[in-house]
Amino acid sequence: MPNGLIETRVAFPGEGIMLRGVLMYPPTAGKLPAVIVHPGAGGLTGGVVDIGKSIAVQGYAVLVFDMYSHMPEDQLPRPATYPTLLPLFRTINERSHLLNLDATLSYLQGLPVVRPDRIAVIGFCTAFPLVFACHNPRLSACVSFYNQMHYGPDTQADTTVMPVDRVANLWCPWQGHYGEADGAIPQDQREEFLKLAARYKKSVDLNVYAGAGHGFAEPGGRAYQETGATLAWDRTKAFLAKHLKG
Questions:
Q1: pTM for this one?
Q2: Rounded CA separation 144/148 (Å)
Q3: pLDDT tens digits for 43-87?
Q4: d(CA 74, CA 24)
Q5: Nearest-CA neighbor of 56 among 19, 12, 4?
Q6: What is the DSSP string of 134-167?
């Protein structure tokens, strides 16, 4: 335990498959609030696991979810990079994926180390964390790092009901971090989200970072912007403490 964390790879039942992930938490005699970390389309990389560790050391049980659990590990493309995984990402069925996230939440709730009524999701790039927070009332909080607000045409989801359209069903407090220069999620989509959140009286905190692009908060990434990333993670830390530890 070089970082003081207990860390292990885990497998647990999902929607007709066994789901995979990396579970980590600091040694404790009690129960910890928990966080599901949902990767972007690049999958369960070392960088995403490191993000999970940076959250766990703050006093959380963290499960970094393998969104490609529906594929045997030995059948994933090699090297497993964003370009090679993108075609596989586009085959993910929204309904099945949400049911697998439900199963992930249930798995965490059943762990002796986890406080079952204090679980959040943090996610990158894909719409799934935001949609999950509009789907499952058992979540205590959601943090979106540049989660999509509109589906593209090449997705296995109902594109007549976009992620932004689900805000009427947002079950938990939500915090978002978006780059001002992110062409994938332009200002009009962010404004649409805020307008709907105000209409339905949802607890949202949407932050926009000057000069930042897509992926600005992930250390080691090509789009990493230290100024915006530092502020975004400080805000995330305070948000999780408020809703999971308060």
A1: 0.96
A2: 9
A3: 999 999 999 999 999 999 999 999 999 989 888 888 888 889 989
A4: 24
A5: 4
A6: TT-TT--EEEEES--SS--SSSBS-TTS-GGGGG
Supply the DSSP string of 117-134, one letter for each residue: EEEEEEEESSSHHHHHHT
Span between the terminal Cα atoms of the chain, in Å: 28
In terms of CATH architecture, what is 6-245? 3-Layer(aba) Sandwich (3.40)
Contact 131, 162 (CB under 8 A): no
CA 49, CA 203: separation in Å to the nearest integer?
28
* Two structure tokens written together for 166: 């689900």
Instruction: Enter the DSSP assignment of 167.
Output: G
Q: Does residue 172 contact residue 148 with C-beta atoms inside 8 Å?
A: no
Q: Are 42 and 67 in contact (CB under 8 A)?
A: no
Annotated domain spans of the chain:
6-245
Q: Which string of b and e fits 169-196 if b means at least 16 CB within 10 Å? A: ebbbbbbbbbbebbebbeeebbebbbeb
Type of residue found at 66? D
Sign of the torsion angle spanned by Cα atoms 32, 37, 43, 45: negative
Q: Which residues contact 113 (CB under 8 A, 6 or more apart)?
A: 25, 28, 31, 32, 61
Using CA atoms, how far apart are residues 215 and 147, in angstroms rounded to an integer? 10
> For residue 48, which amino acid is it?
V
